[in-house]
Every structure is written in C-alpha cells, then in structure tokens.
C-alpha cells in the first residue's frame, strides 16, 4: 500500500497547521484535520500497533489501514473529547491489527478451527496468541447465552477431554445422541460468536 499519509505528513510541513492546537482544529478543513490527527496521534497509534503485532513489516500497514477507516469518521472524531478520541483511535488500530493478523494467519494456515476447540499451545507465534485470545474472549462473552446442556457438553468435550460415552452416561442418552447434540451446540456457539463479532464491529463504527 502506498504511504499516502506519510506523503500528507510531509505536505503538512508546508501548511500553517498547528499540530497540537486543539482550540484551532475546529477551523481546519477535513484534509488539514486528518493531517493534524496523524501528526498528533501517530506515535500513540504506532505503540498500539506494536502492542498487538510483533511483525514490524505490518506496523505501517496497520496505521495506513486505520487511517483509511477513519476517513469516514471525521465528523465523529471532531466531536470527541481528547480522552474519547484517544480511546477511539486505540480501538480502531487494535481492530485493524486483528483483521490483518487474521488475514495473515489464514494465508499461512495458522487459524485454529472452532470445530476442533484447540487451545493455544506453548511456542506458537505471538500473532497466533492474539488471534486465539480474541476468539476465546468472544467465546467468554457469549458463554452465558448457551443453554445449560450446551455448556455441559462443550465443557466436557473441549475442556475436560471427555468421550461421547462418558457424556452420554451423565446425560442418560446414547452416544449417537451426544454427537448430534454436540454438533448443534457447536453451530449455536459459532452463530453467537459471529453475531458478537459483528456487534463489536458495528459498535466501533458508531
């Protein structure tokens, strides 16, 4: 990706735009405002990118993608108070980092299937930990929405490593029934996690 904002940053050196004057930023046009935003928050946003991604080759792309996302949010960014703006930018960079890391992981075959329920293992790459931590955080958020039987089955299978026979003995049904119930429970939790992810993305865009 071309470093469009790096170019604009250099152009800003020719502008009489105070990079840190909050009281005058309301008089800037959109381009001047985004130049001010870049100059004022670039270092903080870069620290956030480094926090969630160890790959130095992705840091600049994360910042560029983040600023592209922010182009459609200029009115909101103008209206936010300083602390709120910092939080908004932090979330934007974090979500952008997650998106790019998921894309990279998929391309390299790192993604852990929700069907397997595999947990992070020692020695995996830092980016894998970020992706898996995000996934398990989402699972924790939707866990209370599952029915008690669904939670019992998923806990038994993926956290306690129990067999279909052991689960069927506890629930008083056949092993074939357990497999069908497990399939429905997995599909249900996947739907909930997708919806949770969409809700989080929509909330971030408000």
UniProtKB/TrEMBL annotation:
GO biological process assignments: DNA-templated transcription initiation
SUPFAM superfamilies linked: Sigma2 domain of RNA polymerase sigma factors, Sigma3 and sigma4 domains of RNA polymerase sigma factors
Entry annotated with the keyword Cell membrane: no
UniProtKB keywords: Sigma factor, Transcription, Transcription regulation
An example molecular function term from Gene Ontology annotations: sigma factor activity
Keyword Protease recorded: no
InterPro entries according to UniProt: RNA_pol_sigma-70-like, RNA_pol_sigma-70_dom, RNA_pol_sigma70_r2, RNA_pol_sigma_r2, RNA_pol_sigma_r3/r4-like, WH-like_DNA-bd_sf
Family statement drawn from the similarity comment of this UniProt entry: Belongs to the sigma-70 factor family. ECF subfamily.
Official protein name in the record: Sigma-70 family RNA polymerase sigma factor
Source organism (scientific name): Evtepia gabavorous
Lineage of the species this protein comes from: Bacteria, Bacillati, Bacillota, Clostridia, Eubacteriales
């Amino acid at each position: 990706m071309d470093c469009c904002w790096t170019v604009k940053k250099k152009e800003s050196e020719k502008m009489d735009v105070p990079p840190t004057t909050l009281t005058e930023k309301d008089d800037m046009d959109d381009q001047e405002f985004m130049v001010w935003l870049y100059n004022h928050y670039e270092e903080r946003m870069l620290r956030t990118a480094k926090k969630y991604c160890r790959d130095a080759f992705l840091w600049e792309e994360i910042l560029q993608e983040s600023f592209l996302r922010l182009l459609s949010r200029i009115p909101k960014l103008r209206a936010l108070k300083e602390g709120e703006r910092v939080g908004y930018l932090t979330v934007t960079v974090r979500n952008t980092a997650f998106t790019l890391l998921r894309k990279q992981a998929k391309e390299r075959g790192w993604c852990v299937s929700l069907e397997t329920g595999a947990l992070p293992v020692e020695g995996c790459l830092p980016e894998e930990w970020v992706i898996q931590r995000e996934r398990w955080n989402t699972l924790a958020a939707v866990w209370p929405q599952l029915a008690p039987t669904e939670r019992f089955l998923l806990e038994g299978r993926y956290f306690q490593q129990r067999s279909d026979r052991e689960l069927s003995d506890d629930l008083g049904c056949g092993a074939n029934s357990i497999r069908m119930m497990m399939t429905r429970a997995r599909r249900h939790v996947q739907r909930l996690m997708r919806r949770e992810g969409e809700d989080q993305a929509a909330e971030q865009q408000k």
